[in-house]
Amino acid sequence: MATVENKQVVLKRYMEGVPKETDMEMKVGKIELKAPKGSGGILVKNLYLSCDPYMRGRMRDFHGSYIPPFVLSQTIEGFGVAVVLDSDNPDYKPGEFISGLTGWEEYTLIRRTFQLRKIQPDDAIPLSYHLGLLGMPGFTAYAGFYEVCSPNQGEYVFVSAASGAVGQLVGQLAKLHGCYVVGSAGSSQKVDLLKNKLGFDEAFNYKEEADLDAALKRYFPQGIDIYFDNVGGAMLDAALLNMRVHGRIAVCGMVSESSLSHPNGIHNLFCLISKRIRMQGLLQSDYVQKFPQFLEHVTEKYKQGKIVYIEDMTEGLETAPAAFVGLFSGKNIGKQVVCLARE
After folding, report:
1. Inter-residue contact 85 to 44 (CB < 8 Å)
2. pTM tops 0.90, yes or no
3. CA distances (Å), origin 321, targets 20, 23, 162
């Protein structure tokens, strides 16, 4: 098998605060396009890479999380869609498509094949959707809404970062469930998408609101039953003041926190007592037994035209650092994906 150049994105330094492009750098390595005998691994060509906010936690020198940090000067790892070029594993054959953790590089030797999922190509569903709608963010939305939020028809639902990879699906699932749904986002373009493409009942630009508590009272005069929180910070504080008795809060992300090492405090936690609110953190990996059910449900709704999905795709591995950093200033519109190759 041939040995070829392999462009890679590596972690240059551990970071504090918001990620910067200079925390990462491009390198060119060499790789043999063969899965070594006895490795049980597969050699893949990466087609699409996913930019996800959780990756920021792996760019810190912090070992107390649910997933270890990246290794300095080593290739960054994230969810991707790839095609198998060579296999030393009887479960995988050349030409098959997979999704799962792979390297931010053109070619990857994957040895931990147990965490991969085979993709059955479907002309109706773009391959890249297996990183968003039918991937980790989509499943996070599904598990968070149905398992953590325990929704009832007619309830009032608020979603922050509502045009993002997770939020856009939460809102649509809530509408299909018969809920009233309001989303917040960071631009008028995103607000327009929420109301006119994604089917939210209402949406607002949080950057134009001097008082978030007043904004939520305007959109939810009767209060909020379910808050799907993707941002933390001031928005979570304001939502706490507006929750109804026995409300539920799914804590999915903290993208508003400029520093995970020195986070800002939350002031209105007493509302948890006075309103008997259930507030629960969320990792989709806790609900993996529900994944087949999720895949069937969301695929069906998408093919029926009852769910739409918005992607923000950049072209070329060299665009990956900027695409990732852009997540934390809201540059992306929809699920951020990097295309390395289409086949």
Report:
1. yes
2. yes
3. 8, 9, 23
Give the DSSP per-residue string, 140-160.
HHHHIIIIIS---TT-EEEES
What is the residue-level pLDDT of the chain in tens, covering all 343 positions?
A: 689 999 999 999 998 888 999 999 999 999 999 999 999 999 999 999 999 999 998 999 888 888 899 999 999 999 999 999 999 999 999 999 999 999 999 999 999 998 899 999 999 999 999 999 999 999 999 999 999 999 999 999 999 999 999 999 999 999 999 999 999 999 999 999 999 999 999 999 999 999 999 999 999 999 999 999 999 999 999 999 999 999 999 999 988 876 666 777 899 999 999 999 999 999 999 999 999 999 999 999 999 999 999 999 999 999 999 999 999 989 999 999 999 998 7
3-class DSSP assignment, residue 99: strand
Who's near 106: CB < 8 A, 6+ residues apart? 6, 7, 8, 45, 46, 317, 340, 341
